[in-house]
Amino acid sequence: MQPSASAIPDFYYALFAFYEPALTILGFIGAVHDPETTHNTQAPWPVDNPPPTSLPKASIVTVIQLAHVCALMGVVNFFVLTAIRKHLSTQPAIQEKIVFALMTPLLMGDCMHLFVTLWALGDERWDVSQWSPMLWTTIVLGFSLMIPRIMWHLGIWRYVDACDRQADVATDEKK
């Protein structure tokens, strides 16, 4: 695939402005619809200690608030990336700087989310046969966003100013 003349070409735009917001909004809707199931399926439960049949109000509020923050991040992606493509379409170097400012903390968040999820599982983290479908979904979808963010940072399939800048722009900058 040839590099794009945009810092946020169609592949990344579709992924981060549509796929990621859709995931986060659906997660929020699921948490609002059934916060108990959302809570109880995050990690495996010991056989001799099943999940509670009802959650305290504080747990329900926490689950919904966390889901809301995730949905908000997805919506922010949509609006920021759409504005970048619309208003900076002729300035890929500036696009790259702004998208970098968005993608960097999101990549750090992806890495920390994976680390914290596995850390919180304790000794059961590697007993993948006991993972709940929700835990598998969390890990797989997390990688489905983290890997493309790493690709973006590596300059794969996108404009990279240091490499793709026009020769005449480089000469103008020296004057």
UniProtKB/TrEMBL annotation:
Residues 5-156 form the DUF7704 domain. Keywords: Membrane, Transmembrane, Transmembrane helix. The chain crosses the membrane at residues 12-32, 58-80, 100-122, 134-152. It comes from the Eukaryota. This is DUF7704 domain-containing protein. It comes from Suillus subaureus.
